[in-house]
Amino acid sequence: xxxxxxxxxxxxxxxxxxxxxxxxxxxxxxxxxxxxxxxxxxxxxxxxxxxxxxxxxxxxxxxxxxxxxxxxxxxxxxxxxxxxxxxxxxxxxxxxxxxxxxx
Length: 103
Ligand SMILES: [Zn+2]
Known about the structure:
By secondary structure, this protein is an alpha+beta fold. The protein has a domain at 26-96. It is 34% helix and 17% strand. The chain has helices at 25-44, 76-80, 87-96; strands spanning 48-52, 55-59, 65-69, 72-73. A four-stranded antiparallel sheet has the order 1-2-3-4, covered by helices on one side. Strand 2 and strand 3 (65-69) form a beta hairpin. It starts with 24 loop residues before the first helix and ends in a 7-residue tail after the last helix. The structure holds zinc ion (ZN).
């Protein structure tokens, strides 16, 4: 089933069947939009730092740092769900183009 929404390509194998029924594209889009807002807040707070070589770190709410590199983040949110990139990945995408890169 095709949807008009542009969502990240995912292998259809690992699909959480929580509550039954197929994933709702509208809800996925809403989740992505909410994460984009949180990611923008991280950027505004200056929580994203470039470490060079395509690696970044993003300050977590608890005061620690999450390690982010291309398409990967070590936060539990990223490990837990597959459909939507975590806010740290989105935040890195937002700043990637204009952060000074040592790479
Ligand atoms: Zn993350």
